Amino acid sequence: ETGVLKPGMVVTFAPVNVTTEVKSVEMHHESLPEATPGDNVGFNVKNVSVKDIRRGNVAGDSKNDPPMEAGSFTAQVIILNHPGQISQGYAPVLDCHTAHIACKFAELKEKIDRRSGKKL
């Protein structure tokens, strides 16, 4: 999404709060000096078990605005092919990047017509 990832950087994974050093950055099994936004890379870290982190965790620079868990967030959500009404308390499974998780709607701020973009 943003930033640069380089070997030697110290990163923190959220929401599990695991901090470690990046050993290497790779694209298609070739070593890279750095990764920039839009790159699809793999990276190796020191002393972290696969049991310590999960798909959907976010890695970020520990020294510069490290990632943190959010207790809540505001989102614009597009509902596809749902029979009936959507209301407060609805808990759909949302997909965001590689995360696939149920989120409960605490409040509906407004409903927007998909075709016109106007408030309903």
From TrEMBL:
Residues of the Translation elongation factor EFTu-like domain: 1-58
Swiss-Prot/TrEMBL keywords: Elongation factor, GTP-binding, Nucleotide-binding, Protein biosynthesis
UniProt keyword Nucleotide-binding, yes or no: yes
Domain GTP-eEF1A C-terminal: 72-119
GO molecular function, one term: GTP binding
One Pfam short name: GTP-eEF1A_C
Family in the record: Belongs to the TRAFAC class translation factor GTPase superfamily. Classic translation factor GTPase family. EF-Tu/EF-1A subfamily.
PANTHER family: ELONGATION FACTOR 1 ALPHA, TR-TYPE G DOMAIN-CONTAINING PROTEIN
Protein name: Elongation factor 1 alpha
Organism listed in the record: Piaractus mesopotamicus
